Amino acid sequence: MSSKLLSAYIYGLFIFLMFCALFSAGPFSLVVWIFGGDPRWAFQVVVRFFWRIFLKMSPVIGKISIKNPHNLNSTKPAIYVSSHQSSIDFVLLGSIIKDFATISNHPISDLPIFMKIPRLVGVYYMEKLNPNAAITVFNRLTKALQKETNVFIFPEGTRNYSETLLPFQKGAFRLSVDNQVPIVPVIIDGTGRIVSKGSNVTKTAQATDIDVSFLDPIYPQEGESVRSLMKRVRETMQTEITKNFS
Q: What is the pTM for the complete model shown?
């Protein structure tokens, strides 16, 4: 099977499963809401289930190994700050981090046709280079943290398949300092060998293994600046990446 045909199959599989998730999540969320529960949580539980099915059924995704699982979903709320190799990372983290909110800079996530469904899942669209949009989204993430909902963010702001992290953006660390919430650094390795940045075509037809490492939580110190916390987290992540590449 050619790379383009394989990619078409994978994207078709994803879209099909998302429609299945939509038709399943709606009734379930309604029932939860009627009995006084949180419909956003219910909606996300169903979507996360179908994301896991996608990862299992995708022919280019092999074994997913979670390293240091004791750091996953053990501190709540927490801000998961992750390296970012490919578009797979979003679904990957969303499938294993419980009760989360996150950011997307893809406009499809905020189109009216989707009836705010991404927001029900916990995904907030942030228009690039729009300071007002950034303020709105981070206010929403702050409210999520106050409700003990986890947050995950890719601080490089773009996909990067190299052994050197790009400069970090400050948003996640400002959230951490302002709300005194720990950062859980995450290292993803393997997804960059499946899909390249800027491409929708798979690089391989072989099942590729993926490692996801959850490092120990890093807590903001009393009086610590955003820049200082950002530097500590980036150095910790870079050390781990360098060790794995060597």
A: 0.90
Q: What is the pLDDT of residue 78?
A: 96
* CA of residue 154 relative to chain centroid, distance: 7
38-42 long-range Cβ contacts below 8 angstroms, 24+ apart: 39/120, 40/119, 40/120, 40/121, 40/122, 41/99
Query: If we measure between CA atoms, which residue out of 48, 55, 50 comes closest to residue 20?
Result: 50
Among residues 88, 75, 222, 81, the alpha carbon closest in space to that of 141 is found at 81
Q: Is the dihedral of CA 147, 130, 93, 23 positive or negative?
A: positive
82 pairs with which residues across the strands? 186
Give residue 113's pLDDT: 42
pLDDT value at residue 117: 64
What separation, in Å, do the N-terminal and C-terminal C-alpha atoms of the chain show? 34
Residue with tokens 């859980």: 184
Pick the CATH number of 62-245 from 3.40.50.2300, 3.40.50.170, 2.60.40.420, 3.40.1130.10: 3.40.1130.10
**Running along the chain, 246 residues long, what does each successive block of 10 average in pLDDT?**
80 88 87 86 90 94 95 94 90 93 67 56 74 82 93 89 90 95 95 77 85 96 94 96 77
**Domain coordinates in residue numbering, the chain:** 62-245
For residue 77 the two structure tokens come to 């709320």
Question: 113 CB contacts (<8 Å, ≥6 apart)?
Answer: none
Query: Which tokens in the block code for residue 30?
Result: 């309604």
